[in-house]
Amino acid sequence: MFRNQYDTDVTTWSPAGRLFQVEYAMEAVKQGSAAVGLRSRTHVVLATVNKAASDLSSHQRKVFKIDDHVGVAIAGLTADGRVLSRYLRNECINHSFVYEAPLPVGRLVVRLADKAQVCTQRSWKRPYGVGLLVAGLDELGAHLYYNCPSGNYFEYQAFAIGSRSQAAKTYLERRADKGRPLRHQGDAAGEKLTSSICTVAIVGIGEPFHIISEQAVQEMVDALETREEATAEQSGGDMQDESGNPDAAAPMEEI
Amino acid sequence: MGSRFNPYDNNGGTCVAIAGVDYCVVAADTRMSTGYSILTRDYSKICQLADKSVLASSGFQADVKALQKNLSAKHLIYQHQHNKQMSCPAMAQLLSNTLYYKRFFPYYAFNVLGGLDSEGKGCVFTYDAVGSYERVGYSTQGTGSTLIIPVLDNQLKSPSPLLLPAKDAVTPLSEGEAVDLVKDVFASATERDIYTGDQVEIVIINASGIKREYVQLRRD
């Protein structure tokens, strides 16, 4: 009700104790196209749906390699994401230069979060309009973090951000205890999956962060579809809403 | 009265590089000294900066190490921004700029950069301490350089840079012949230069990648 009065400045609190500009920034993240992250003990996988501005333009890059052991997927204002990726890369390079060791992921996300927080407490700035899924490996194992415009960050086993991410999140929550990350990644994206509209990247023990080639992704998608068809046939239809057949829209999407 | 703090030290050693039609040989001895003492017989002066760029530096190894780290970090940034490795000529310019940046407190490093250019031909760039550089067919830097360069001049007959049309600076020698020549010149330099010896590390860059070879030298 009073949203309009207290939402001009990021440095103005609402009577209910909210910073509307920050919440609006998080809204920008929800409007972006989906990004999903999933981790196991040894690997972390990121997947994004690539939205193109028009049929004539190229897809936007939403996955960035930060260092051999860290990568990010973004949702929201891609330009903000690009700028933050540059910052993250610099932090990693500077740390490696001084300590001759990779920057632990936990410390990287704190720095990113602190940077985001600054923009929530300066009247001449605006919050970053991008959410980042940070996937990385360090001595303690594999990590997946979510950094949001508010300056908060959380560690996750699996998470999804962007539009229609709720469907993916629900899917992932249901399968929280199962392994085989990559299979669930494909299903969780929830769109009609072709390798041209999605990007998949992986980092793991003995495997530096890299984006999986379009060809390899297509092979995985094809393998996924054949496996899903086989399982659907076997159990005769009552697996319909469980299998998350990538060819059909996820049932929860109808909401 | 008394001596001021001297920020530099010379750790000795010699570097050589020879460019061929489709290969490049970069070599340096592995002896690290200070004054008349040997610090170690097993120190590499060679650093691979990119896919096709290898830097060999003699002089003050602390400055050399800092220079190598600096260039590696800059190369990483380049890769992030351009999605590809730096070419050898690009790295050559970067090294020159990095050295001149410290024009008034120089890196005490005498560099030879070797690799393959964008056409796959061997290239060698030779530097002074503040970044003045030139592409050449072969070069040598370090304590043994004055002993080696006349031998290379004699064997490789590099064309004059004053010639028109410009003649290619690469040597007609085969890869094997160039490596043998490098072994010979190091053996000769080891005889008379006290700071050169122990081992020579020979790095060969060609289309199939990077190879490394070690040859024992006199340890006296």
From TrEMBL, chain A:
Q: What GO CC terms are in its UniProt record?
A: cytoplasm; nucleus; proteasome core complex, alpha-subunit complex
- List the Pfam families: Proteasome, Proteasome_A_N
Q: Mainly localized where?
A: cytoplasm
Compartments where found = Cytoplasm; Nucleus
Q: Look up the domain of life of the source.
A: Eukaryota
The record lists the membrane-crossing segments as: none
Q: Which SUPFAM superfamilies match?
A: N-terminal nucleophile aminohydrolases (Ntn hydrolases) (SSF56235)
The chain positions of domain Proteasome alpha-type subunits read 6-28
Please give a single GO biological process term from the UniProt record: ubiquitin-dependent protein catabolic process
Q: Which CDD domains match?
A: proteasome_alpha_type_1
Ordered alphabetically, the record's keywords are: Cytoplasm, Nucleus, Proteasome
Subunit description: The 20S proteasome core is composed of 28 subunits that are arranged in four stacked rings, resulting in a barrel-shaped structure. The two end rings are each formed by seven alpha subunits, and the two central rings are each formed by seven beta subunits. The 26S proteasome consists of a 20S proteasome core and two 19S regulatory subunits. The 20S proteasome core is composed of 28 subunits that are arranged in four stacked rings, resulting in a barrel-shaped structure. The two end rings are each formed by seven alpha subunits, and the two central rings are each formed by seven beta subunits. The catalytic chamber with the active sites is on the inside of the barrel.
Regarding protein family, the annotation reads: Belongs to the peptidase T1A family.
Q: What is this protein called?
A: Proteasome subunit alpha type
**Organism in which the protein naturally occurs:** Spirodela intermedia
UniProtKB/TrEMBL annotation, chain B:
User: InterPro entries of this UniProt entry?
Assistant: Ntn_hydrolases_N (IPR029055), Proteasome_bsu_CS (IPR016050), Proteasome_sua/b (IPR001353), Proteasome_suB-type (IPR023333)
Q: How does it assemble?
A: The 26S proteasome consists of a 20S proteasome core and two 19S regulatory subunits. The 20S proteasome core is composed of 28 subunits that are arranged in four stacked rings, resulting in a barrel-shaped structure. The two end rings are each formed by seven alpha subunits, and the two central rings are each formed by seven beta subunits. The catalytic chamber with the active sites is on the inside of the barrel.
Q: Does the keyword Translocase feature in the UniProt annotation?
A: no
Name of protein? Proteasome subunit beta
| The UniProt record lists the keyword Membrane | no
Return the SUPFAM superfamilies for the record: N-terminal nucleophile aminohydrolases (Ntn hydrolases) (SSF56235)
What's this protein's family per the entry?
A: Belongs to the peptidase T1B family.
